[in-house]
Amino acid sequence: MTPHHTYRTLTGTSRLAGVMGWPVSHSKSPRLQGYWLAKYGIDGCYMPLPVKPENFETALKSLRDLGFAGVNVTIPHKEAAMAACDQLSDRAKRVGAVNTITFTENGEVLGDNTDGFGFVENLRQVAPDSAFASGPAVVLGAGGACRAVLVSLLEEDCPEIRLTNRTRKRAEDLATEINDPRIKVVDWPLAPDALLGASLVVNTTSLGMVGQPKLEIDLDGLPQTALVTDIVYAPLMTDLLVKARERGNPIVDGLGMLLHQARPGFHRWFAIDPEVTQELRDFVLSPD
Ligand code: ATR
User: Fold this and answer.
1) Which atom of ligand 1 is nearest to the CA of 142?
2) Which residue in 145, 219, 272, 278 is a FRET match for 175, CA 20 to 30 A apart?
3) Given the DSSP bridges, would you call strands 70-73 and 100-103 parallel, antiparallel or unpaired?
4) pLDDT tens-digit readout, 77-136
């Protein structure tokens, strides 16, 4: 029996969680967390919570007062969530955004950012033999999604990060904020040169996503052993990944980052560290 065929009713002691976003209808989190709740037979519930930006703080405190175990926070609330928390994890502070909140028994609001954890765990699970953090990493993009990737690579002791973005100023600002000499900003047109000797390439731009232009980058200088990954997961096989695979590089698609970033929240709220499996991937990708 697959988990989505299992249904259990809620009880008076059900654990409650959800995802706050505006809009939230696109979020895959209810499906993902709901799959795990069913798989592990947990007396709990995870619901979409459409919350307008102006109501964020009131809604958050209300969820705490309603006895929720915690919530995920998605666009556009990730920065506001940071200000609304009583305590922040080190990685949330370093990333400057919160995506996972836990309410303690005495009413404290704890904020964490698990995006970088999701990024690294995905690489570890799909490419266990890759020494992706042993050499220079090339990171394309400097938007919100990029920060967590940078912070997690620094935590993995990556010796050098070549950060390149169409708007150089944004990459410079990000490097200044994170303030680690291992981050070197490279001009966008020079990205192909930055691939020389790299052990990891990460696309954090929206290029390659459904409805967006392709990411056009010449991979000739990239060592064949370098791991290539994309945080775009619609489509799963972006042009970058197709091109990298054709020339023999190991590749990791972006869906796993989404699945793994959800684990710490589920673990805290429902007391089980859930597994990311092929069946889960298929379930999350299948139509609702
Ligand atoms: P998010 O916060 O989700 O990462 P974002 O802040 O809009 O989204 O960032 C999108 C990223 O894709 C940025 O790095 C952006 O580059 P700019 O900072 O120059 O805008 C990058 N991006 C989007 N469209 C692009 C394009 N046509 N060419 C190059 N980079 C592009």
Assistant:
1) 14
2) 219
3) antiparallel
4) 998 999 999 999 999 999 999 999 999 999 999 999 999 999 999 999 999 999 999 999
Cα 235 to Cα 218: distance, rounded to the nearest angstrom = 20
CA distances for 195 relative to 163, 191, 201, angstroms: 11, 7, 8
- AA letter at 254: G
pTM: 0.95
Among 206, 209, 212, residue to substitute to test ligand 1 (most atoms within 8 Å of Cβ): 206
Per DSSP, helices labelled H in 54-201 are: 56-65, 78-84, 90-95, 115-126, 144-155, 168-178, 191-194
Which positions are annotated as active-site residues? Answer: 78
| Residue 237 confidence (pLDDT) above 60 | yes
- Indicate the top mutation candidate among 205, 212, 230, 233 to test ligand 1's pocket, ranked by most ligand atoms within 8 A of CB: 205
Residue closest by Cα to atom 7 of ligand 1 = 143
User: What is the total count of domains within the chain?
Assistant: 2
Q: What is the CATH number of the domain that holds 55?
A: 3.40.50.10860
110 and 128 co-located in one domain: no
Find tokens 């459409």 and name the residue. Answer: 50
Instruction: Locate the ligand 1 atom nearest the alpha carbon of residue 170 and give its number.
Output: 18
